[in-house]
Amino acid sequence: MKDFREWLREDRMPHIYCTGCGNGTVINCTLNAVNQMGWEPENTVFISGIGCSSRAPGYIITDSLHTTHGRAIPFATGVKLCRPDLHVVVFTGDGDLAAIGGNHFIHACRRNIDLTVVCMNNYIYGMTGGQGSPCTPLGAISTTTPYGCDEAPFDLASLATAAGANYVSRWTSYHVKELTRAVKAGLETPGLSFIEAMVQCPTGYGRRNKLRDARLMVQWMRDHSVLMKKWKQMEAEGRPLPEDKFPVGEFVRRHRPAMGVPEE
Amino acid sequence: MTRLEFWQGNIACAEGALAAGCRFFGGYPITPSTEVAEHMARRLPKIGGVFVQMEDELASIASVIGASWTGTRSMTATSGPGFSLMMENIGYAIMTETPCVIVNVQRGGPSTGQPTRASQGDMMQCRFGSHGDSSIIAVSPASVQEMYELTAKAFNLADRYRVPTFVMADEIIAHMRERIEVPDTVEIVERRQLEKGALPFAAGEDGVPGFPTFGQGHGVHVTGLTHDERGYPSSTDPGVHDRLVRRLVGKVEEARHEMADYEVTNPDAEVVFVSYGSPARSVKQTVRDMDDERVGSLRLRVVWPFPDFALHEFKNARVFLVPELNLGQIAREAARHTAVPVVPIPELGGELHTPAQLAEIAEGYL
Amino acid sequence: MRHEIRFSGFGGQGIILSAVILGRAAAIYDEKYAVQTQVYGPEARGGASMSAVVIDDEPVLYPEVTRPDIYVIMSQEGFLKYGARAPEDAMMILDDGLVQDRPRCRHYPIPATYEAKFTLNRVIVANIVMLGALVATTRIVSREAIEKAVLDSVPKGTEDLNMRALKLGFDLGTRSMQDETA
């Protein structure tokens, strides 16, 4: 394989994603990372749940399971435990992973099963029309938080770190090279790897939150993300951490005991 | 060759699965099915299989379905509330034609109900519990021997028809210990593999497509959405949906003759008991004690798809008596298929009908 | 002929195991038919535990015990809950030190727990002593069958202890019958 495009199912195009959607960027970064690993489609399996992000496996030529809402990880667990030699990548979204599938997510991190989980976090439910999710920021408008979200959101990368995943990083669809490198690092690390990819949803989120188009949303992510090194420095110096910003980079890389790792 | 054992039903169930080649168990502890999981946890790692205790029943059945796509014979076991939790992904298994075996050791419900007492209250749930039109296969063991045999058979049925297959046991059969003759080997009918290059969801005359095992280069996309013969989502075309659902139901219902498995006693009888699972033991005892050719019995080992034609074997039947540990679930199904009166004999609370009780009812119709 | 044997005691005494061993002896080594059942409560220890065995020469169909003809009772609570209503034509083996009441039916008080504690120095084998007494007094299964079934069922390294407990039970049972006729 030379190019990520060779992993795509051309007869499934056009895809369902809206103009300006960030999911395509994440899928391309992931396929680039997979390609760089030298994996073959017959040894690679993509598994997803329900939502915009979860349509991704349907556009990829490998064996794939497009499963039920929130349950991609336990399906992937069954595949991986029976065939540790297969490379198993899970595509999910913030609603799929952190709301309905939250319990599976933390238990997969605890078990440290050898999967790479790529979460496209667009802070809302995109497919059903922009409802609030566990990652909707405080005050943000969605169709189910019409007066502003009054619940605090999950920090998915910190959650995965606390729950025991071997590799965790967060980037955005603005950080294409970093995101690709992070996915590759995840693919290389035995145990559960979690890559949170913040993405823009201009249709479901941006237009309700004064971020009229994809360009403004990507710029917002660029301007509100702080590199992990700088973030930690601010923390160490006791400087106040800006409430509207978030750290990007590697949260953890470690070697806790893992399950489903192929024998050498 | 066989060897004699004195096993609990749940142990026989697990051993039957292992004999049939089950090599993956994903489960969550719940009374009264837990011994199946415990036995699999002891045995599977020793024979190259995988046991995993998942975080809940939703995850258990999901892991089983994932495992099945690697070509591994896979199973879970549950009871009561755990069975309810599995319904969504059972629907996924039906839609994606994933062979898998689900053991339900039935206990009293609704809700938490009676964790340690027997029931047959889930017979309709296993048939209709998942949303949408569908058909499944269910077997119902009436002895420890059958916990072994019918669990093994369930794997063959699941693979042959590519449909979730239920072992609908109950607490009495699952927890009792009795003599079992364990065979050296059991018959194994593997799932038919997809031919290279064939469309993964295109079926032949029997309605069952070949199975595209993961990791063999088929590049199959499996989705719970309505899909075409390529496996691609096609969720708005009425014709695609109609064709798919009719095939999924038809492949099971039209095969009900070939998978029928039942016992007939006194086919010329006028008063006929219809039973399955542990109440069948009370019926058998009643028929033996009464020793009257006018009293007969139809015992189902395969309950779903329901063998309507078996009722018609009793040409002289004046009444069908259906003792069940529920308020008349299979009685209602039987009544759909015959003009002869069907009388439910419900028993709730966890005790079996006594033979004396059944004999008295039968006498009333003679 | 159908025999229904009911075991009761408190959780932790090995009541269930006793019933399993008896069923195994009958079904595997005496070539009879047997079904063992038990009552499951939420308690893992304490409480009144109950288990039953049906033994017959023909297949056991109806598996539940309706009218036990033999009782093995190892606690006062178990007696009150599962033994007190024993019909007069039944018979009962009871642990002499642990059951204070006596039934109307024929019964054999066996100092099983006392003997296990002071003769064998292991109170845990009291249930096996009771099994020995049960077989000696009722011949419900053969001595060879119960010996084999006990050996199948006990942890490795405890075979000798359990065999001594079983033989002690045989002796106590035989003596109890002699006391009755004397």
Q: What is the secondary structure topology, with strand pairs?
A:
The complex is a heterotrimer of chains A (264), B (366) and C (182).
Chain A: H1 23-36, E1 44-48, E2 63-66, H2 72-82, E3 87-93, H3 94-100, H4 102-111, E4 116-121, E5 124-125, E6 131-132, H5 156-163, E7 167-172, H6 176-188, E8 193-198, H7 214-224, E9 225-227, H8 228-236, E10 246-253
Helix pairs in contact in A: 1-6, 3-4, 4-5
Chain B: E1 2-8, H1 9-19, E2 22-27, H2 34-43, E3 50-53, H3 57-68, E4 73-78, H4 80-96, E5 100-108, E6 114-118, H5 123-128, E7 137-139, H6 144-161, E8 164-170, H7 171-175, E9 177-183, E10 221-223, H8 238-253, E11 262-265, E12 271-275, H9 279-290, E13 295-300, E14 302-304, H10 308-311, E15 319-324, H11 329-335, E16 342-346, H12 355-363
Parallel strand pairs in B: 2-3, 2-4, 4-5, 5-8, 7-8, 12-13, 12-15, 15-16
Antiparallel strand pairs in B: 1-9, 5-6, 7-14, 11-13
Helix pairs in contact in B: 1-2, 1-6, 3-4, 9-12
Chain C: E1 3-11, H1 15-29, E2 33-38, E3 46-56, E4 70-73, H2 76-83, E5 91-95, E6 106-110, H3 112-118, H4 126-138, H5 143-153, H6 159-181
Parallel strand pairs in C: 1-4, 4-5, 5-6
Antiparallel strand pairs in C: 1-3, 2-3
Helix pairs in contact in C: 1-5, 3-4, 4-6
Let me know the largest β-sheet of chain C: 6 strands, mixed
Strand share of the residues of chain C?
15-25%
| CATH third-tier fold name of chain A | Rossmann fold
> Largest interface, and how many residues on either side?
A-B, 34 and 41 residues
Q: What is the CATH C-level name of chain A? A: Alpha Beta
Q: Looking across the biggest beta sheet of chain A, what order are the strands in?
A: 2-1-3-4-8-7-10-9
What class would the helix/strand composition of chain C place it in? Answer: alpha/beta
The CATH homology group name of chain A = Thiamin diphosphate (ThDP)-binding fold, Pyr/PP domains
- Percent helix of chain A, as a range, is 25-40%
Determine the CATH topology of chain C: Pyruvate-ferredoxin Oxidoreductase, domain 3
Instruction: Supply the number of structural domains of chain C.
Output: 1
Strand fraction of chain A: 15-25%
Q: Which strand order do you get reading across the main beta sheet of chain C? A: 2-3-1-4-5-6
